[in-house]
Each structure stands twice: as C-alpha cells, then as structure tokens.
Design goal:
Largest sheet: none
Structural class: mainly alpha
Order of helices and strands: HHH
Number of domains: 2
Number of strands: 0
Strand content: under 5%
Radius of gyration: 18 Å
Helix content: 55-70%
Number of helices: 3
Amino acid sequence: MPDGLSRERYGFGQDETSFLDAFANMPSFEDVPLAIIQDGLERGERPARLQRSARLFQAYERMFWDAMAAAAKAG
C-alpha cells in the first residue's frame, strides 16, 4: 500500500506512509484471537465468559473508531 501512495503518484513520502508497513506485515486476523480463545479454554475459562470478553473488546474498538471518525469530521 505505501507503494501505491508513492510520492510520484500522490506526493506522499516515506514519513507519511511508514505506518502502513506495520499493517502489511500483520499476522492473520484469525490466528491471534483463536490462540487467545484456545488458551482460555485450556485454562478452564467458561466459553460464555470468553464470548463476553470478545464482545466487550469489539465494543471498545468500535467506540475508538467512532471517536476517530467524529474527530476527523470536527477537524
């Protein structure tokens, strides 16, 4: 993606696009959550408790992105 936003095409340089490199090298979306869930189950956590934790995490993430969108609109 950083290459697609290159200086030649859109005027963005390495400083403006370096944060995108982290996203390009992220592990599979499913690998990390599945490992966390499996670890919880192996430690005897109840599935309902793991589900609740996952829903809370999703809600907090949504609140974060909603706040970022509101800030972008206000700015």
